[in-house]
Amino acid sequence: METLINLLWIETIKWNTITITAIWIVIFLRLIIIIRTARDISARTENHFFQIISILLVTIIPFPIWLLIYIAIRPIWTIIRTNWDLNINASWILENSIIQNNARCQKCWTLNPKEYKNCIKCGEKIKTNCKECNSEYPKDYFYCPFCGAPNIER
Ligand SMILES: [Zn+2]
Ligand SMILES: [Zn+2]
């Protein structure tokens, strides 16, 4: 009788150990997911409210559901990617405005305001007259901006 009780006792301890280990593994995995989500969401938004909601979501809601909700609500691009897109756009606008507001000297490649008649660096004439409509425009243009005739001097 005493042996049986002893055996049962050992069995109970064994099962308790397995259960406790399993619980620890589950807690550990959940922690990794929470840390991973925290890093992911802070790379995607600077909105603290949104960051906290996302972390709470993966902490409280059971597995497949939080993943689906998180993927649905998180911003598609990271902040770095978004800033990169904005920078590309800004440099494109800047480049366009430089092209539109300046004329490049064909001799020394200096950029001059497009109203100037001669290069500020070498004195070269930077305007030409259209062969079709006789309008004056910068020499580095491929086409006359007034009538569209090609610039034969280029
Ligand atoms: Zn020049
Ligand atoms: Zn013209």
Descriptive notes:
Helices cover 58% and strands 8% of the residues. With 154 residues, the protein is mainly alpha-helical. It folds into two domains: 2-76; 81-138, no CATH class. A two-stranded antiparallel sheet has the order 1-2. A two-stranded antiparallel sheet has the order 3-4. Helix 1 (2-44) packs antiparallel against helix 2 (48-60). The longest helix is centred in the N-terminal third of the chain and has 43 residues, at 2-44. It is rod-shaped and about 120 Å long. The N and C termini lie far apart (109 Å). The mean pLDDT is 90. It binds zinc ion (2 copies). Residues 130, 132-133, 135, 144, 146-147, 149 line the site of one zinc ion.
Give a short overview.
By secondary structure, this protein is mostly helical. The protein has four helices and four strands; from the N terminus they run H-H-H-H-E-E-E-E.
Features:
154 residues; binds zinc ion; rod-shaped; 2 domains; mainly alpha; two-stranded antiparallel sheet; 8% strand; single chain
